Amino acid sequence: MVRTLLIIIFLLPSISAYSFLSDNEIALHQKELAMKPIGERIAFWAEKFVGTLYDSDPHGEYVTKKAIVADERVDCMYLTFRVVELSLAKTPTEAVTIALDKRFIGKGRISEGRVANYEDRFQRGEDMMASGKWGRDVTEKIGLATETEVLKDGRKIKILSKGTLRSVFVASNSHALQVQSFRSGDLIFFVKSPAQRISDEVVGHIGIVKEEGDVFYLIHAKGMKNRGGVVEKVLLSKYIISMPFVGIRISRFE
């Protein structure tokens, strides 16, 4: 019996390297949240990760370990993946099944308890948005968007510029963004300036919106691969005013 348990414990990390909550705790929350709007569920799970250490593995620990669940350390893409999967699923097991669809351009495959084709995963935020798997693009519903060019294939996308957003915050002298239309659970994709882009990568960061009353917060994995960091919750206005990005795009699950 002991030997059997040891074998099971040894095998578990191959697909579930670490979860910040037990499956029973996750299932309980999923049951309690079942009737909530999807945006509220996304914001709830995002906040659960606040304080989690930043994943400094250049490829992501979940990729290196070929795991679906690796919650001990997260980067902005894994945080987005995992939060949405937990929010859409009714059970912890279903969240894994959803991950095999959502994280991949096609479909993920499990072989001998490990993900067999992480090379086919989404590696760029702009490709996540273009796929339609990560919500609907609502950028132009949030505010006046301007056009910017995506260098990789010549596509053009609409962004809300930092200047536009900053003027709203400063003019209203408020964290509430009363003239805007953000919602809890919105995914924000932060757009690099052309000078910052490496290999034509357009999106440099991803975060999740949480609304409390009339105040909007950003929950995001703040860190760098060579320095570490932590998942934090900050005023969205404060982050945008000082962010090192030229603008944002927003996607929403409805």
Short description:
The protein is of the alpha+beta class.
Description:
This protein has helices spanning 2-11, 23-33, 38-48, 61-64, 76-88, 92-102, 125-131, 139-142, 162-172, 236-242, and strands at 16-18, 53-54, 69-70, 73-74, 110-111, 114-115, 136-137, 146-149, 156-161, 187-191, 203-212, 215-224, 228-235, 247-252. By secondary structure, it is an alpha+beta fold. It has a single domain (13-252), classed as putative xylanase like fold. Strands 7, 8, 9, 10, 11, 12, 13 and 14 form an 8-stranded antiparallel beta sheet that branches. Strands 1-3 form a two-stranded parallel ribbon. The protein is globular and about 50 Å long.
Layout of secondary structure:
Blueprint (H helix, E strand, L loop, with lengths): L1 H10 L4 E3 L4 H11 L4 H11 L4 E2 L6 H4 L4 E2 L2 E2 L1 H13 L3 H11 L7 E2 L2 E2 L9 H7 L4 E2 L1 H4 L3 E4 L6 E6 H11 L14 E5 L11 E10 L2 E10 L3 E8 H7 L4 E6 L2
Parallel strand pairs: 1-3, 2-4
Antiparallel strand pairs: 5-6, 7-14, 8-9, 9-14, 10-11, 10-14, 11-12, 12-13
Helix pairs in contact: 3-5, 5-6
